Amino acid sequence: MTKHLERDLAHLKRELLSLGALVEEATNKAITALVNRRADVADEVRNGDDLIDSRELEIEEECLKLLALYQPMATDLRFIVAVMKVNNDLERMGDLAVNIADRAFDMAMAQPVVPPGDLLTMAERVRAMVRESLDALVNRDCELARKVVRDDEDVDDMHKRMFKFLEELMMKDASLVPLGVHTLSASRHLERIADLATNIAEDVVFMVEGEVIRHTR
Amino acid sequence: MTKHLERDLAHLKRELLSLGALVEEATNKAITALVNRRADVADEVRNGDDLIDSRELEIEEECLKLLALYQPMATDLRFIVAVMKVNNDLERMGDLAVNIADRAFDMAMAQPVVPPGDLLTMAERVRAMVRESLDALVNRDCELARKVVRDDEDVDDMHKRMFKFLEELMMKDASLVPLGVHTLSASRHLERIADLATNIAEDVVFMVEGEVIRHTR
């Protein structure tokens, strides 16, 4: 039975990583759509979300099956519970990528109101956090996971600066309000993707070391 | 052992409901702070979040313990997994209540930019959804759970109307941008609390009937 469990856990891990790859791709495309004002790429993100949703359901089903079938203890149990949580977070990231794509779609025809470089810097940072949180998960790398948790503060700061900048811009020129509000939403969605990457990183630390680092920031 | 499991599951249920009551109270207070412009009540919400966070951790710990100790099957397993998910959603609702309280704090000294009645109507609807999702959970009431899922569409519509209204307001009078943006955030946080209540309702249906109603809306 242990051998079967081992095999099934390896399969579960691959499934989760494949979902992670889909979500990472959706995030990257949403960022491309936003920064390069590509409505066609935004559409790809919106059309891809059904697959992410159905994969999430399959993985959850798989976790429940493994729990019932093997009644695993200690490390294996903690791993399966972590997979369920990460799975949930990945699905929410997918939704946020769609939200960003929606904003990108609305803004594709207009002149950008923030220097594209600023949005890109933030987006690149978030993209790296998504990538690193998944790498930390695969490699059970707590050092990398803790880096992701630290990086989240930078993204929070970037979002706050973006907020301030857009607020002032809209006060100066009211005709920029609609675009300003869309850009603000996009920035907030990016910031929330970073939060979810941080959740994943925290779950990695919990899974590997058994230490809860949530709520201690 | 079955008797012990039964006793421990009943205890877990009580713990979850007590967390639910804390979160419901935080949500109600955040709404009061927002609508009645009460900075003191906003402060109570901010100060109460540590308790919610620590309760969430305790409940998760308890779930892991029960899974390892009893290796439960079928219904009990599905119940424990549902508790873990609802627990997570409740903690996120608590965070959103704090976000609303932060906005309420910033806006307490200013004249409201939206008719307080509009915000109140939306807030009352969200408050009812939180209440009903928890009632549905306690009573394993799928009919009520499905009502919560349906109500979420109304809240989404209310948020969209609020968005439109505030956007136009800010375009007409740029001096209202800061307050408009805060109000928009508060409305979005309310809408997300409703989303999480919907998640809980969906988990109730899954727990009781084994049917997945997520992603089918």
Descriptive account of the structure:
Two copies of one chain form a homodimer. By secondary structure, chain A is mainly α. Chain A has one domain (2-209): Phosphate transport system protein phou homolog 2, domain 2 (Methane Monooxygenase Hydroxylase, Chain G, domain 1, Up-down Bundle), CATH 1.20.58. Chain A is 86% helix and 0% strand. Chain A contains six helices and no strands. The first copy, chain A, has helices spanning 2-35, 39-70, 74-107, 116-138, 142-172, 177-209. The radius of gyration of chain A is 19 Å and the shape is elongated.
Topology:
2 copies of one chain form a homodimer.
Chain A: H1 2-35, H2 39-70, H3 74-107, H4 116-138, H5 142-172, H6 177-209
Helix pairs in contact in A: 1-2, 1-3, 1-4, 2-3, 3-6, 4-5, 4-6, 5-6
Short description:
Chain A is mainly alpha-helical and 217 residues long. Helix content of chain A is 86%, strand content 0%.
List unreliable stretches of 5+ residues of chain A.
none
The level of helicity of chain A is: over 70%
Question: How many strands, which pairing sense, and closed or not: the largest β-sheet of chain A?
Answer: none
Structural class of chain A: mainly alpha
The CATH homologous superfamily of chain A corresponds to Phosphate transport system protein phou homolog 2, domain 2
Count of separate structural domains of chain A: 1
Biggest chain-to-chain interface with counts:
A-B, 32 and 32 residues
CATH topology of chain A: Methane Monooxygenase Hydroxylase, Chain G, domain 1
Q: In CATH, what is the class of chain A?
A: Mainly Alpha
N-to-C terminal Cα separation of chain A, in Å?
A: 41 Å
Q: Based on CA inertia axes, which overall geometry of chain A fits?
A: elongated
What kind of oligomer do you see? homodimer
What is the N-to-C succession of helices and strands of chain A? HHHHHH
Radius of gyration of chain A: 19 Å
Strand content of chain A: under 5%
Total DSSP E strands of chain A: 0
Number of helices of chain A: 6
Assigned CATH architecture of chain A: Up-down Bundle
Overall mean pLDDT of chain A stands at 91
